[in-house]
Amino acid sequence: MFNYEKRLEYPINIKETNPKLAKAIITQYGGPNGELGASMRYLSQRYTMPYKECMALLTDIGTEELGHFEMIATIVHQLTRNMTMEELKASGFDAYYVDHTLGLWPQAASGTPFTAAMFQSVGDPITDLTEDMAADGTIV
Amino acid sequence: MMNSGAFGQFQRGNSCSQGRGQTSCAQPQPRPATPCNQPQSRPSAPCSQPQSRPSAPCNQPQSRPSAPCSQPQPRPSAPCSQPQPRPSAPCSQPQPRPSASCSQQPQTRPATPCNQPQGHSSHRPAGSSCPCSEMNREQLFRWISLTKFACVDSSLYLDTHPCDVEAIAYFKEHMHLYNEALAEYSKTYGPLTLAHAHHCDTYWDWVNQPWPWQ
User: Is A50–B41 a contact, with Cβ atoms under 8 angstroms apart?
Assistant: First the structure.
């Protein structure tokens, strides 16, 4: 099960307002290669791993990704919490705002809602690990 | 655990030719059928030594299957009866291996007015909270983040290198520092985990701000 620590894995203190940037960064929140996808991917794949070391690793990484999920949410939150109406309209963030206001909702930058279709978990370790590389390998 | 009753054909000694032609088990089986003859990573004769707390060098084979499954296994050729070949600087931490206490890692220690002597013994003095009591809130919070990250990172390494005794020692040392710091912080400034939320009496201060995103 999961415990929570009331602390970001890395401190985030954004003073400026930048909804245009938030529009792009939100893809790391709810997009196909984002942190929520990563967490769900690893936490889903761990059940069928043939080695206990893999179960441990996927569990621990999946858990850490939830912490990353929180950090990205924090970034988007801090970039948008003090928006003016003018900033809102000028940035194009209004399309998101009209449905969610300042709320955080996992979606890609394109507006595609987060979905399990953004990751795969087929129960075969080689396939699953290849899926992991395809998603996280873009960062490596 | 696999219920062998339903897959009786996967007895040891059987080849993997269960009706799929004479294809040997040289390639991954289509899922969700379990792989041929491959014991799960929880053998019925379990490693008598709890894997997570080796009191002796890990001389038990890891969860590499011992059955002669011809499926390529990602395993070392020898069982883990000897220290794994590894670089002399284990895991990825830049610090020198701490055989002594925290005083040898100045680069991770935040600036603190602590007057603690820098060269004390390898055993942590009982009852001492090291420099935690000298730090202010911000410094202590940062120290918590540093030590916990060392634990998280080394735990990921240990997940795939469970026999690395030095890495375990590293993890334990930093976990100890983290727990000390966390207890100190929670007592003074409020809980960071529910496990440390017991210092309150009349008000459930877990709800207090700031929350991490604020």
Answer: yes
B152:A123 CB<8 A: no
Instruction: State the average pLDDT over residues B186-212.
Output: 96
pLDDT bracket for residue B19 (50, 70, 90): very low
CA dist A117 and B24 (Å) reads: 34
Choose, out of B155, B159, B182, B211, the residue to mutate when testing the contact with A (most A CBs < 10 Å).
Answer: B159
CATH superfamily of A19-135: Ferritin, core subunit, four-helix bundle (1.20.1260.10)
Judging contacts by C-beta atoms under 8 Å, the chain A residues touching residue B148 are: 5
At residue B26, the 3 state secondary structure works out as coil
- Residues B38-54, mean pLDDT to the nearest whole number: 46
Nearest to A21 by CA among A103, A70, A87: A87
Residue A90 Cα distances to A85, A107, B123, B199, angstroms: 9, 21, 61, 48
Inter-residue contact B207 to A2 (CB < 8 Å): no
**Nearest residue on chain B to A12, alpha-carbon basis:** B213
Q: Where are the domains of chain B?
A: 162-196
What angle do the packed helices B137-160 and B165-189 form, to 10 degrees?
150
Q: Do B213 and A8 touch (CB under 8 A)?
A: yes
Give the span between the Cα atoms of A37 and A35, in whole angstroms: 5
Q: pLDDT for B106-121, tens place per residue?
A: 444 444 444 444 444 4
User: For the segment B49-88, what is each residue's pLDDT rounded down to a tens digit?
Assistant: 444 444 445 555 455 544 444 444 444 444 444 444 444 4
Instruction: List CB contacts (< 8 A) between B142 and chain A.
Output: 11
Whether A118 shows a pLDDT value over 60: the answer reads: yes
CA distance A34 to A32: 6
> Quick check: B213 and A12 CB within 8 A?
yes
Per-residue pLDDT, B213: 97
